[in-house]
């Protein structure tokens, strides 16, 4: 079998005006490599045909040209593969659920795809300590379901929970809808098993399955959010919180963004430790849900902003009284146009359906320019207004939803077709604006291919130099996920 280098042209439908880095002088996959991989993982777990679903990302923005997808089922298999790739200088991209939104999980050229979905055998949970130890290839929702049978849950939740894998979540330091209460993954990951792309394919346990361990440099944190640039995560020890016995959802209509900030301030005061989600959807999001999904807001006042809040506690009566009292306070003080308290699980599920369908609903407009930024709250919605003014009627919609309680705005601009003109209006304008207003160009989705050229925005040169040096230590041949976050 021979694969021709001439075909290696990166293809993408996103940010088409930016240059793609040239293919680096990596090896080219041969029949001999494929034979080696078949020996390691078995013939059935090496795929060389019908690879489209693995080569393209969830948004259908990027399409790589890998000729081979591998499905290892153990750290030992991953180790043998990475050692071989190191020795033959074959580039590799780790892939979990392939739900990433920045083109990180797909090849840029012909990188071998290391799909980790079969890495889902080992699972153990200690219900006294709340510590879960598992392989990295479990689906997030499956882990959550298993933990709930013992009265616990995963410390994170996101719309892609039915497809994303825990290794992918850790590699992106996924945020989601419960971060406000349970913290980000740096707070909950205690240890990681990682396979390095070095001459030995070293299998290393960083951190440990212990709550407290100050016996060395806390290196496991470097893999949380490093997007597969330093090693392949094959296992994790995770601190899992007890599942709440009382969960209450409510939606609140507010006319101004300053008003939303006031509601957040008072939600923290009234609801304290039980406040677990504080999400925002603007009127354009609601209109998009109506038009593209026929989903109607539960709020009838047609507010400019619909807030979805949730509490997670253990005393239903007490929690309900607190939420009720909070809603009454908002109405009495004319801080809300209307409010709806979910009367049961179905009503709560519908409120979350509105929020979690937002990412899919915008894709039905045709084309989406997606941003995921962190901003100080006083600038959170100013950005959306600035973009509306800048783009005018050249775009179909400017939609903002997001994890307002974490200062995380998901600003999405939709058009019917990809447009150079709109691209040039948005890039680098949005990123420059965010950096100038004290924000971050990626709150939770990461850098991947999409923000590669802007990764250094607002950071000192020293940080980039250190990241590159670190990559060299872990990945001496630079074979792991090239052309992405660390360049
Ligand atoms: P993939 O997409 O397969 O990979 C993501 C990155 O991690 C890639 O760079 C890949 O190379 C690397 N990687 C994957 N597995 C490993 C591994 N085992 N070792 C080393 N590197 C690895 N994200 C949020 O943060 N919050 C949200 O609320 C949220 N909601 C979403 C809703 C929808 C509908 C969708 C489609 C996506 C959403 N996302 C969200 C983005 C995405 O789901 C997350 O980034 C998720 O954590 C990716 O997990 P995955 O298993 O799909 O990883
Ligand atoms: C979300 O919060 O819905 C996700 O991060 C996905 C998105 O931004 O569209
Ligand atoms: Zn999000």
TrEMBL record:
Pfam families to which the protein is assigned, alphabetical: FAD-oxidase_C, FAD_binding_4
Essential cofactor(s): FAD
GO molecular function, one term: (R)-2-hydroxyglutarate dehydrogenase activity
Domain FAD-binding PCMH-type span(s) in chain numbering: 62-243
Reactions the enzyme catalyzes: (R)-malate + A = oxaloacetate + AH2
PANTHER family named in the record: D-2-HYDROXYGLUTARATE DEHYDROGENASE, MITOCHONDRIAL
Purpose of the protein: Catalyzes the oxidation of D-2-hydroxyglutarate (D-2-HG) to alpha-ketoglutarate. Also catalyzes the oxidation of other D-2-hydroxyacids, such as D-malate (D-MAL) and D-lactate (D-LAC). Exhibits high activities towards D-2-HG and D-MAL but a very weak activity towards D-LAC.
Cellular component GO terms, alphabetical: mitochondrion
Enzyme class: oxidoreductase
EC number: 1.1.99.39
Record protein name field: D-2-hydroxyglutarate dehydrogenase, mitochondrial
Source species: Steinernema carpocapsae (Entomopathogenic nematode)
InterPro entries recorded: FAD-bd_oxidored_4_C (IPR004113), FAD-bd_PCMH (IPR016166), FAD-bd_PCMH-like_sf (IPR036318), FAD-bd_PCMH_sub1 (IPR016167), FAD-bd_PCMH_sub2 (IPR016169), FAD-linked_Oxase-like_C (IPR016164), FAD-oxidored/transferase_4 (IPR051264), Oxid_FAD_bind_N (IPR006094)
Similarity comment: Belongs to the FAD-binding oxidoreductase/transferase type 4 family.
PROSITE patterns assigned: FAD_PCMH
Keywords per UniProt: FAD, Flavoprotein, Oxidoreductase
